[in-house]
Amino acid sequence: MTAYPELKLYIDGEWVGAGQRRLHKVINPATGGTLGELPLVDVGDLDRALEAADRGFRQWKRATADERARVLKGAAQLIRQRVDHIARVATLEEGKTLAETRIEAQVAANLFEFYAEECRRTYGRVLVRPTGTRSLVVKEPVGPVAAFAPWNFPIGNPARKLGAPVAAGCSVILKPAEEAPASAIEIVRALVDAGLPPGVVQLVFGVPDEVSRHLLASPVIRKLSFTGSTAVGKHLLALAAATVKRTTMELGGHAPVIVFDDADLGRTVDLLATAKCRNAGQVCVSPTRFYVQQGIYDRFVAAFTERMRSMKVGDGLAEGTQMGPMANPRRPAAMERFIEDALSHGARLLAGGERHGKEGFFWQPTVLAETPVTARIMNEEPFGPVAVVNPFATFDEAVEQANRLPYGLAAYAFTESGKRAMLIGDAIEAGMVAINAVTLAAADAPFGGVKESGFGAEDGPEGLEACLVTKTIHQA
Predict the structure, then answer these.
(1) Is residue 463 part of a domain?
(2) Which listed residue, of 50, 66, 310, 411, carries a Cα 20 to 30 Å from 435's Cα?
(3) Which of 112, 89, 262 has the alpha carbon at shortest distance from 186?
(4) CA 378 to chain CA centroid, nearest Å
């Protein structure tokens, strides 16, 4: 088994240990035991990070596309070489299965590789002007970025926060989640080992409100990039507004699933059960509100419940585990409150609904049926392995329920009708819609939401564009 690495900060080209800093215990969610102690930044560390990011930006923005590409491609290669180590570290500290963390590491490498090529395509344009004059539209890096990443994808989220800004010529101060820090350390280490100059990336951990207030109050920071809950996102937007910083916000979701009565039942059940239990449901695009047409409802509920009951829950490092623990003790406690509230409103519990095992933070895959719209779980993101399944009669009814909430990150639909697939794709209010599929993320495709699920996009050319500003130069 890979040993859990020593936890450090990375500031101005230096790996910084605990010293006299405050420490945060990192817990293995499968056992509840302590993996290590993480140093937390103080004000002096943050000021040093800001100074380094300012200096690093002035250097890195002058780097050629080839220089940036070499670093990103080199980091991608190193991640692939170290995939087993990185995956084990992520499973130890976040809990998801090794199969999932291996994929996540490969996705991070793919993203760096994509941006290594995309940074060569930062095009401007020349406007038509009379002879002797010229107007140019050019793209420039926005400047130092303050990036905040959550714990649920401890490899992928840091890579997503770093790939596009580094490709664009920005510097980054990255604050990942303190619950799963070593995965982010490995991603930053890959960039450093690939030749990223000191000052371009800083890696800090600390008390979230202290770090965000200090960084976002600084004129050095030109852009905020945040992935997390809608409530925290609104708070950070208010802080960023004081200095009119650019923002990219990927906030909470509550993904609807519409299963029409002509769907391929077996394939649909298999895809959705796997997607629902992925990372124990701790996924911003996790399918949660299932609306199943009446003609197939009873058969779907029976098959889906059986499939969820059959999921093998256990330590993510163990052979054959299909769903690991939840990432921290807050999540099972939240599941208990959601389930209790749903049952008090009249929902039927068909599977799960309880903790699993005597140690760690495990929860049983859970299915609720006929849950009233007044229940909390129908209106608030549960962020756990629970699916709520309700019947619907008509296309318009399904669309109304799917679009009812202020969230619009992801949505899913299953139908064998080409016309219906086209219509439902148009009707759903979400930044991403999967039809007869559950995969939404790809290096070359934008990832982001609408309404209170945020704005802007990461990944794809849109992710690079979000790290650039437009300048018009008129010359006579």
Answers:
(1) yes
(2) 310
(3) 89
(4) 22
Please report the sign of the dihedral spanned by the C-alpha atoms of residue 355, residue 351, residue 325, residue 320. Answer: positive
What's the first-to-final CA gap in the chain, in angstroms?
A: 66
C-alpha R_g of the chain = 23
Q: What CA–CA distances, in Å, run from 153 to 15, 24, 58, 94, 210?
A: 23, 19, 31, 8, 23
Regarding whether 106 and 60 lie in a shared domain, the answer is yes
Examine residue 448 and state whether it is found in any structural domain, yes or no.
no
pLDDT value at 348 more than 50: yes
Question: What is the distance between the alpha carbons of residues 260 and 420, in angstroms, rounded to a whole number?
Answer: 9
CATH code, domain carrying 40: 3.40.605.10
Neighbours of 14 (CB within 10 A): 12
> Is 159 found in the same domain as 265?
no
How many domains, the chain?
A: 2
Instruction: Label residue 144 exposed, middle or buried (CB < 10 Å: 0-12, 13-18, 19+).
Output: buried
Q: What is the pLDDT of residues 387-413, one digit of tens each?
A: 999 999 999 999 999 999 999 999 999
Residue numbers of the domain that contains 379: 255-443
Q: What is the pLDDT of residue 389?
A: 98
CA distance 263 to 269: 10
Strand 287-293 and strand 407-408: the pairing is unpaired
CB atoms inside a 10 Å sphere around CB 86: 30
Strands annotated E in 60-194: 125-127, 134-141, 145-148, 172-175
260 three-state secondary structure? coil
pTM check: above 0.90: yes
Cβ-proximal residues to 473 (8 Å cutoff; 6+ apart), any chain = 135, 136, 137, 138
Q: Are residues 205 and 231 in the same domain?
A: yes
Q: Are 152 and 283 in contact (CB under 8 A)?
A: yes
Same domain, 431 and 326: yes
Beta-carbon contacts of 66 under 8 Å, excluding residues fewer than 6 positions away, are 120
Quote the CA–CA distance of 271 and 437 in Å, as a whole number.
Answer: 7
Cα dihedral 58, 71, 472, 460 sign: negative
3-state SS class at 282: coil
CB 274 within 8 A of CB 304: no
Which residues partner with 127 through β-bridges?
Answer: 135
Co-location of 388 and 268 in the same domain: yes
Catalytic amino acids? 250, 284
**Binning pLDDT at 50, 70 and 90, where does residue 1 land?**
very low
Strands 450-451 and 407-408: antiparallel
Helices (H) and strands (E) in the chain, counts: 14, 22
pLDDT reported for residue 204? 98
